[in-house]
Amino acid sequence: MWGRIFLSPKLLNRIHFTWTRRHLFTMQLKTKEFQSLFTDGLNSLAEIFEKHRFELRIAGGAVRDLLSGQRPEDVDFATTATPEEMKRMFQAAGIRMINNKGEKHGTITARLHNENFEVTTLRVDVQTDGRHAEVEFTTDWQKDAERRDLTINSMFLGLDGTLYDYFQGYEDLQIRKVRFVGSAALRIQEDYLRILRYFRFYGRVATEPGQHDPDTLEAIQENGSGLAGISGERIWVELKKMLVGNHASHLLELVYELGLAKYIGLPAEGNVEEMKQVCQKAQSSSPKPMTVLSALFRGPDDVERLDLRLKISREEKTLGLFLVKQRRDLVKSQDEHDELKPFTDFIIDSREPDAHSKVLELLKYQGEGKLLTELRHWSIPRFPVSGHDLRRLGITSGKEIGATLQELRDEWKKSRYQLTKEELLSTISRS
Prior knowledge:
This protein is an alpha+beta fold. The chain is 46% helix and 12% strand. It is built from 22 helices and 11 strands. It has helices spanning 9-12, 32-35, 40-51, 61-67, 83-92, 141-146, 169-174, 184-190, 194-205, 214-223, 232-243, 248-257, 272-282, 289-294, 300-310, 314-326, 341-349, 355-366, 369-376, 387-392, 398-414, 421-425; strands spanning 15-19, 25-29, 56-59, 76-79, 96-98, 107-112, 115-121, 123-128, 133-137, 156-158, 162-165. A 9-stranded mixed sheet has the order 1-2-11-10-3-4-7-6-5. Strands 8-9 form a two-stranded antiparallel ribbon. A hairpin with a 3-residue loop joins strand 10 (156-158) and strand 11. It is elongated, with a radius of gyration of 28 Å. The termini are far apart. Mean pLDDT is 91; it is low at 1-7 and 9-22.
């Protein structure tokens, strides 16, 4: 599960606050997480920009993470330099540039000291179609912040530790509030995927479900149909992140209440009550996204339609089909001394290499925490008899070998996989 974001008293003691003009909130950050970013590569990058008198700041999610006392996994940078200016700087310094696909959007990737650094020119959106934007470069930091989705993602951090916050993102982070920058409707219309990003960050930041701004939910509902034009792959990336965050049950229910399900591949008549029960039972066992979604499905056709819309992986699709088929049929034994046996028998009989992992997800779905722990520590035993062993006993017919092996396998399973090869072979009649 995503960790919730909070600011500790210890962290607050290392921060200095300042309010300046243009509603800009600044402060100084000098935490160990921030200092740990300064590798040889970043120091060299900073020197190049300083030499050519262009500003360089950390941008977006990395700032949010640092303010939360976390070291970000990915760090994006923003600058007042244009892509052409960056290219000239890096070429003059002998710095290799890679992956030029982002250049038209203002992003240059430079490689220094075996590290890649993505640096993007400040931008404003000139025209958007709800999926992509035509951009124009700027040197105005506030204008770039205005085009970002959420206030908590709109902040910049100078390499001297100065925070630049134009839209009260820091304050929202403190009170665990997820809010769009400016007008929610306008931000959503710029990229309809922001609806799902809002849900994902709500699960990451908010402490309680149901604390949404009514105007935000209204904007989402009114613009939800725009999700129909977003590629399935992009939707699935966001949906999966939402499903492994906090409040997944509440957020999925909200997807249905706001009429979004039909635009993102979920069944129109999804079993929301079952989903809520599964989320409650499985919340402590880290279920896979498909395990949670499967509770909404009423049959295999729902899995097929999801795949058609979202282009899920083969592994995800087969897991969904497995859970829909087995959630009522493959259940624990009535024998309280061997409740796990139906599951282990299924795994041993299965020809699929991922049967063990699928059954683990089934146990999460069913809320069988004790059996889940047992199965995680269970090693699949090897059936000790082969066709070669039977041929040595004079059994040559392929059909007879197959039937005999099945009989011996059944006996072996009844013994809880304890019978040895010799004990099994001794049961064969040699007449």
